[in-house]
Amino acid sequence: MTLVLGIDIGGTGSRAALGEVDDAGSAPRIIDQLTGTRIEIGSSGSTVLDVVRELVRSAAETWPDRFSEVSGIGIGATGIASLAEDPSADLAEISAEHGVPAVAAIDAVTAHLGALGGTGGAITVLGTGAIAIAHPGPDESGTWSSAWSRADGWGHLFGDRGGGAWLGRQGLELALRTHDGTDERGRALLEAASRRFGPPASWPGQFYTRNDRAGLLAEFAIDIAETARSGDAASADLLREAGREAARSAVAAARRSSREDPATGRADRTAGHPTRIALTGGVAAAGSHLVEEFRIETGHLDPNVTIVESAGGPLAGAFTLGHLGAGGKLSAQDRIIWT
């Protein structure tokens, strides 16, 4: 067994954990963990790299004896590709300071490694944001090439379709239409949003001035799930649409990762083609409306896909990432993985 530091940073919080992995980098066992702050986004970009440095520093101070045994650091983080400077220099500094190789990836990669147990396939991650990613899987030597394909992950203003912030925004928009008297379907959502955020007139001031507005929007996804479970049709429809969006992104990422015959244009579904698809992330637990619609839409788009249950979470994937990075089994890929 090998000791690895895994770091998972999302839109609503962050954590670091010491874990043991087997020789294949899977089957992680968490020894201990600590939590950190959530990232903020402002005019200068994301604070994600500041959060990374603070978590590594806290881990070294919290577990000084065990930290000396760490063989690798695996970091999965949201916003690291599009809202932060190139993390390569920061990773080099962390590695030099602590004497441990560090590798970072967008959070979808660690979600993929955790959900599919270090094998090929495609996933959609529904957290605060939303992104789909696919990879054919490791080669015979266990090395992961720079063959990651992604869809969405464009942030809460341009995309993240089906994620928590997307759901929250859709729900609040419908609530405000009901408040304005143009659409009565959002009555339950208006009542729920008013309980959480106060009078509608105060919402613009609460949201537009926040650096972490995506996380704030995602909080309302909890209320949407609750009103759907209480029988509200509009909330259930929003969850179904989130499931459809998640399926569309997953299948799109899987198709990009396909090997196609140039003569026929048909995908070769052999030798590592990602036919396995999983739905992951906290929003995936929002209820049966979302999950069932994900299954229906996936089957409609590609009947050859097999939907599988997630084997593990992004923290498990961060352990695998750190183990693979320490063993030289990862290839860097622009805006996906940094070694």
From TrEMBL:
Residues 5-286 form the ATPase BadF/BadG/BcrA/BcrD type domain. Residues 257-271 have a biased composition (Basic and acidic residues). This is ATPase BadF/BadG/BcrA/BcrD type. It comes from the Bacteria. Residues 249-272 are annotated as: Disordered. It comes from Brevibacterium linens. It holds the Pfam family BcrAD_BadFG. Gene3D superfamilies: 3.30.420.40.
